[in-house]
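Wed. Picked up where I left off yesterday with Pyridoxamine 5'-phosphate oxidase-related FMN-binding. The coffee machine is broken again, so keeping this brief.
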Amino acid sequence: MKDQPSPIRETDDDARKLARVLLRSARHAAIAVLDPETGFPFASRVLVATDIDGAPVILVSKLSAHTKALARDARASLLTGEPGKGDPLAHPRLTTQCLAQPVDRGDAFHERIRTRFLARHAKAKLYIDFPDFLFFRLKPEQASLNGGFGRAYQLDGNDLIIQSAANEEIAAGAAETVRDLVERHPDVAEALAARLKAPESASWRICGIDLSGFDMISGDFLLRYEFETLAGDADHICSNISKIAYSIP
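Structure written out below (tokens, as returned):
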């Protein structure tokens, strides 16, 4: 009997880029944890943002079942990718296996994560500082990408993370970088939305930047754009964004 061909394709740069977009463009996701009492998988829904290196972060109540599970066993899987019209299985989705790391309020990067989370989820300001809420940073270990029928890939956790010593510097000056960019180009968000064919909505704004790309938000819509190559610093990020917004197609 002949060996059946593997359904898993060789992972290439296009697959890595699609996986990063699916993870970084998610505002919510399904999370699966292990019930500490029964050992059964337990699935729920969580709001998602990303840290400066692209790692997903979640804000959860200490009273929720998935939070109690993560306190006992840090392993979790996160499913991202929105179904569109027609067959839901024809649309790309990503399952990321992670290790959940609690982020205490005294941690040096807690404020950074809080700021980035609120940029995507403004309504979370109503409860984000309640004492019974906390962040988890989900460190990707490996991932399974289904890009549609016949397009399956296996990825390493590092395929999803921005590897750069400049991450911290970018995070510290992110708000100022975006503010300066908008002051120089007041219509930059509008130009980007038009160029990237964003869904029609009231008003778009840049809600996050990193060395790999930028995020834009308008109401419930979130758009993620990945640069062709990793930027080196804040000026490089702004240059990339300006070229995308104003260059001739």
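Quick read: Helices lie at 13-24, 65-72, 110-120, 167-184, 188-195, 234-246.
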